[in-house]
Amino acid sequence: MYSAEKLAGNGLKSVEMLYSLAGSSFDATERLTTLTLDTVRTGIDDSALGLKALVAVKEPREALVLAAGMIEPTLLCGLAYLRGCYGILTAWGATLGGLVEDQAILFEGELSAALEHMGRTLPHGGEAVSSAVKAALSQAGSVAGEAGRITRDVIDQAEANVIRNTDAMVRLVSSAARKAA
Fold first, then answer.
1. What does pLDDT average to over the chain?
2. Residues 104-137: pLDDT tens digits?
3. Angle at 168 between CA 163 and CA 169, to 5 degrees
4. Count of CA atoms in the C-beta half-sphere (13 A) of 86
């Protein structure tokens, strides 16, 4: 049933999957590092400008207005960073999910072929057992697919809620900062 060529082919597929996994992981890490460095650089630049402006302040009221004006850009920068991280990690997760799904499809095909072979080599009634196992596996696969779809829907809804709530929070904080100034 398993030949040397088939085992070598399976080994090659595993190596290719690991190579793809490592490549996507390095890509995600590089993107996260770039995002982090850009955010830190922006934060340092904004802080330096804020300190220069604070040094030039003559009255306490001006300092309060300046500090209140810095709240919203700082908050927006932090949210942009978090959203960027989330986007990178979500894309990486989708890539990993695709790799795993591809492997599951290959495994399902090999299992189906093995069950076919088993059904032909078993004594009388083996085909019925093989068919029953294949039907159960097919049903389990469709249930898993439906569960995945429902999970994606729930995640999409949660993402929309988080975005809507963070936007509302930014508006509230900005409004409060303007009122304080």
1. 83
2. 777 777 777 777 777 777 777 777 777 777 788 7
3. 100
4. 13
pTM here? 0.70
Q: In this prediction, what percent of the chain has a pLDDT beyond 70?
A: 94
Report the alpha-carbon distance of residue 55 to residue 67 in Å, rounded: 12
- Classify burial at 130, counting beta carbons within 10 Å of its beta carbon; exposed 0-12, middle 13-18, buried 19 or more: buried
What string of H, E and C letters represents the secondary structure of 91-160?
HHHHHHHHHHHHHHHHHHHHHHHHHHHHHHHCCCCHHHHHHHHHHHHHHHHHHHHHHHHHHHHHHHHHHH
Q: Which DSSP string corresponds to 40-55?
A: HHHHHHHHHHHHHHHH
Q: For residue 100, report the phi and psi dihedrals to the nearest 5 degrees.
A: -65, -40
Contact by Cβ (8 Å): 102, 24: no
CA-closest candidate to residue 91, choices 162, 166, 27:
27
